[in-house]
Design a protein that fits this description.
The complex is a heterodimer of chains A (79) and B (221). Chain A has 79 residues and is α+β, with helices and mostly antiparallel strands. Chain A has one domain (2-78): Phosphoribosylformylglycinamidine synthase subunit PurS (Mth169, Chain: A, 2-Layer Sandwich), CATH 3.30.1280. Chain A is built from 2 helices and 3 strands. Chain A has helices spanning 16-27, 51-66, and strands spanning 2-9, 39-45, 72-78. Chain B is of the alpha/beta class. Chain B has a single domain, classed as Class I glutamine amidotransferase (GATase) domain (Rossmann fold). In chain B, 24% of the residues lie in helices and 26% in strands. Chain B has helices spanning 14-25, 68-78, 88-95, 152-160, 209-220, and strands at 2-7, 28-33, 45-48, 82-86, 102-104, 112-120, 136-143, 147-149, 164-168, 180-184, 190-193. Chain B is globular, with a radius of gyration of 15 Å. Classes of the chains: A alpha+beta (79), B alpha/beta (221). Chains A and B meet through helix 1 of A and loops of B.
């Protein structure tokens, strides 16, 4: 199975990269674009077929290392 | 007196820190590799230097915080040994959970390298007692991610408990909340700061205010 952990800055944390990109998109004519956020996806293979266990593992990894929960939130996807 | 400077792959201020601590305090300073599990016996001060540990992969300081040596650093801090993290070292201490908050990208997305004036917000810590009434000190910053963040509740608590030690005086260079440049842990023996005392330890460098920090903490050991 493939696990994906999506990490973004929390809503209350200013995403300066997102702001800069939003400004550029506005400049290109997409003036209605709002709330641009820049995140990252970390993906990896997990052995076995127990999806719930893999999700629990990936969540633990995110809390321990992949995300800094002071500033970031994350979402786990296993397929 | 003994000090140790931890060297991570990508640290680039480790030698500066060794020289700064030796010349300011006369302490003997060992460098310790990040893969080591033990620190030298009887160290009075541990310095986590500036740089780009692990190429800032994942997040600044995130990988270094998981290094074997950090277990020994955390244990020493629990035993009351003084620890100072400068710049990348501050980021590492936050990532390791030894200090509150986190450092974000600078508000204007630029790497900033310049001298800054700092207010000594708490002159009664082990790191600042030597400033003895000196309200403003000068050091340089050199970082792209020095924008201190913590939630409002944490910020209130840090201010209330005197854990905010340095603030940017005048213009806030990087967007740090409440102009915070340096904080200590609740016990007061772990300091993290973005400005470099290791680049301000004698007058020829433009400021000797950093030397006072190292002297204060050594005198407190």
């Amino acid at each position: 199975m493939k696990a994906k952990v999506h990490v973004y800055l929390k809503p209350g944390v200013l995403d300066v990269q997102g702001k800069a990109i939003e400004g550029a998109l506005h400049g290109l004519g997409w003036g209605d674009v709002a709330n641009v956020r820049v995140g990252k996806t970390i993906e990896f293979d997990v052995p076995g077929s127990d999806r719930a266990a893999a999700e629990a593992d990936a969540k633990a990894m995110a809390e321990r290392l992949l995300a800094n929960t002071v500033i970031e939130s994350f979402r786990v996807e296993v397929a | 007196m003994k000090a140790a400077v931890v060297v991570f792959p990508g640290s680039n201020c480790d030698r500066d820190c060794v020289v700064a601590v030796e010349r300011s305090t006369g302490a003997s300073v060992d460098r310790v590799w990040h893969q080591d599990h033990d620190l030298p016996d009887g160290v009075d001060l541990i310095v986590l230097p500036g740089g780009f540990s692990y190429g800032d992969y994942l997040r600044c300081g995130a990988m270094a915080a998981q290094s074997p040596v950090m277990k020994a650093v955390a244990k020493a801090a629990d035993d009351g040994v003084a620890v100072v993290g400068i710049c990348n070292g501050f980021q590492i201490l936050c990532e390791a959970g030894m200090l509150p908050g986190a450092l974000l990208r600078n508000a204007k997305l630029k790497y900033i390298c310049k001298a800054v004036d700092l207010d000594v917000t708490n002159g009664q810590t082990r790191f600042t007692s030597g400033y003895a009434g000196q309200r403003t000190v000068r050091m340089t910053i050199g970082n792209g991610e020095g924008n201190f963040f913590a939630d409002e509740e944490t910020l209130d608590r840090l201010e209330g408990d005197g854990q905010v030690v340095f603030r940017y005086a005048g213009e806030n260079p990087n967007g740090s909340l409440r102009n915070i440049a340096g904080v200590v842990n609740a016990r007061g023996n772990v300091l993290g700061l973005m400005p470099h005392p290791d680049r301000a330890f004698e007058a020829e460098l433009g400021s000797a205010d950093g030397a006072t920090l190292f002297q204060s903490v050594m005198a407190s050991a």
